Amino acid sequence: MRYMIMGWPVWRRGVLIGILWAATMALTSGVILGYGIGPALVGSLVGGVIFVSAMTLAMARAEKALNPVAGPPLTADERVSAVRAADRGQLSDDSRVQAAAVTLARQRVRQRIGIVLLPVLCGILAVVAAAFAIMENPWWWLLAVVVVVAGPLSIVELRRQLRGATMLLDQVEEGAARQ
């Protein structure tokens, strides 16, 4: 599913993220905070548009870095192959895909601080949600459960991606050392 979505254009992925974010915010605002469906929808739509704009620009910038300096940009299939190669830590036969996979792997290694920050953020969010559930509204337990379930899954995925990126970069360095 992830690789299928990676094949989509940036704007479509941005819209998907915006819809998920707006739905989450509408649920949080309308049900958990009790603002009502009207204000929750309006706030979620406005926030969703802002969020989609920011995320789409960020994704487009990150993808632009994967494109080769000379020549046409990567196709959707090449982009998906580059992400797969970086995830699995395997070199590609296609030089364009391999260059993009190495660039992505280097980005992931540079951003490895997320492995430390994500557990801390998930822990803080779970504690805050539990505190609000006790003091304010029992619906906050729903958020606490989501964070406790989704947090470790996200951390495992982030570590898997970093492990694949490190393996790919090690293979590139070994190949360079042999030459």
Give me the secondary-structure topology.
Elements: H1 2-6, H2 10-32, H3 37-66, H4 76-88, H5 95-110, H6 114-135, H7 140-178
Helix pairs in contact: 2-3, 4-5, 4-7, 5-7, 6-7
Low-confidence stretches: none
First-residue to last-residue Cα separation:
38 Å
Q: What class do helices, strands and sheet pairing give?
A: mainly alpha
Q: What are the secondary-structure elements, in order, as H or E?
A: HHHHHHH
Number of strands: 0
General shape: flat
- Tally of contiguous helical segments: 7
Oligomerization state: single chain
Helix content: over 70%
Strand content: under 5%
Query: Nearest-angstrom radius of gyration?
Result: 20 Å
Average pLDDT taken over every residue: 86
Largest beta-sheet characterization: none
What does it look like?
The chain is mainly α. Helix content is 83%, strand content 0%. The protein has seven helices and no strands. The chain has helices spanning 2-6, 10-32, 37-66, 76-88, 95-110, 114-135, 140-178. Helix 4 (76-88) packs across helix 5 (95-110), helix 4 (76-88) crosses helix 7 (140-178) and helix 6 (114-135) packs antiparallel against helix 7. The longest helix has 39 residues, at 140-178. It is flat. The mean pLDDT is 86.
